[in-house]
Amino acid sequence: MTTATDNGLRILDGGQLRLLRAIDALFLRWAEGWDAPEFRFPYLMRCRDLDTFDYYDNFPHLGLTATRLDPQRLGAVLAEGSRPVEEMPAAVMEPSAFALPSAACYSIYLDLSDAVLPDEGVMRTTVGTCFRNEDHYDGLQRLLGFSMREIVFVGPEDGAKQHLIRAKETVLALCTELGLNVRLEVATDPFFDKNGGKAKMQRLFPVKEEFVVNGLAIGSVNYHRNFFGERCAILAGDGTAHTSCLAFGLERWVHTLTDRFGDTAAALAAVEALG
């Protein structure tokens, strides 16, 4: 059973950790089969890089930063306050240039900045610890810090759309094998102004669809059109690259599979039986 250590913070026990690694290994095999090499990026991002994507305009409620503490001011606070410290006051914090990202794929686009890609585009996969300043938390279903696996395509428009089609078919087939009652639900993408032309195009081709089991989104497919390609000056084929990604919240899969099979051991056996 998971143990809460604080609001939005949870501990995975050995069985849960084995299940998380097994399901992630399955997703990684998909990536390898789709010629998506794995990359690992730093836990932190520069605030200026996130701002390149209008992140703070679109997700002001989720933003978190990694902040250096001023030793002298900290010492004064510690000397005067009660211990242990419940909250670190803003007065001891230095301005921060680094952010805790809420999605794993941002670093992929930044890593490809100014690149001229092969005409067919490229695939990448990564797993990262992501952070979201939510208004509430709920066990493994909603965490302050969580693991996200993403499989990303960067290249021509047709390739980006084909990645989404293949990804949806693959995930839905997996859910059928595992006996999960999944629904594919259209969601909104705040990267696009709700009053803008791109948002209107979303009605014709959804930019975000979520895989929902018992009301919980355990993954999503996302089509960003040429948004990240433009912001990072990535070229592919005849013009600016389009991007799309398949994303999973791994702890949510642990929760969902444990609920489906009754315990983590049975869930792990079901995943391992997939081969």
Question: What does this molecule look like?
Answer:
- The protein is of the alpha+beta class and 275 residues long.
- It has 10 helices and 15 strands.
- The protein has a 7-stranded mixed β-sheet with strand order 3-8-9-15-12-11-10. Strands 4-6-5 form a 3-stranded antiparallel β-sheet. Strands 7-13-14 form a 3-stranded mixed β-sheet, with no helix packed on it.
- α1 packs across α9, α1 packs parallel to α10 and α9 packs across α10.
- It is globular, with a radius of gyration of 20 Å.
- About 3% of the residues have low confidence.
List its traits.
single chain; 275 residues; 3-stranded antiparallel beta sheet; 26% strand; globular
In percent, how much strand structure appears in the residues?
A: 25-35%
Instruction: Bin the helical content.
Output: 25-40%
Straight-line distance between termini = 27 Å
Shape, principal axes of CA atoms: globular
Strands, total number: 15
The overall pLDDT average reads 91
Low-confidence stretches: 197-205
Tally of DSSP helical segments: 10
Identify the strand order in the major beta sheet. 3-8-9-15-12-11-10
What's the quick description here?
With 275 residues, the protein is an alpha+beta fold. The chain has helices at 14-33, 47-52, 55-58, 71-80, 106-111, 157-177, 197-202, 227-231, 250-261, 264-272; strands at 3-6, 9-11, 38-39, 45-46, 65-66, 98-99, 116-117, 122-131, 145-155, 182-186, 208-213, 216-225, 235-236, 239-240, 242-249.
What is the topology?
Blueprint: E1 3-6, E2 9-11, H1 14-33, E3 38-39, E4 45-46, H2 47-52, H3 55-58, E5 65-66, H4 71-80, E6 98-99, H5 106-111, E7 116-117, E8 122-131, E9 145-155, H6 157-177, E10 182-186, H7 197-202, E11 208-213, E12 216-225, H8 227-231, E13 235-236, E14 239-240, E15 242-249, H9 250-261, H10 264-272
Parallel strand pairs: 3-8, 7-13
Antiparallel strand pairs: 1-2, 4-6, 5-6, 8-9, 9-15, 10-11, 11-12, 12-15, 13-14
Helix pairs in contact: 1-9, 1-10, 9-10
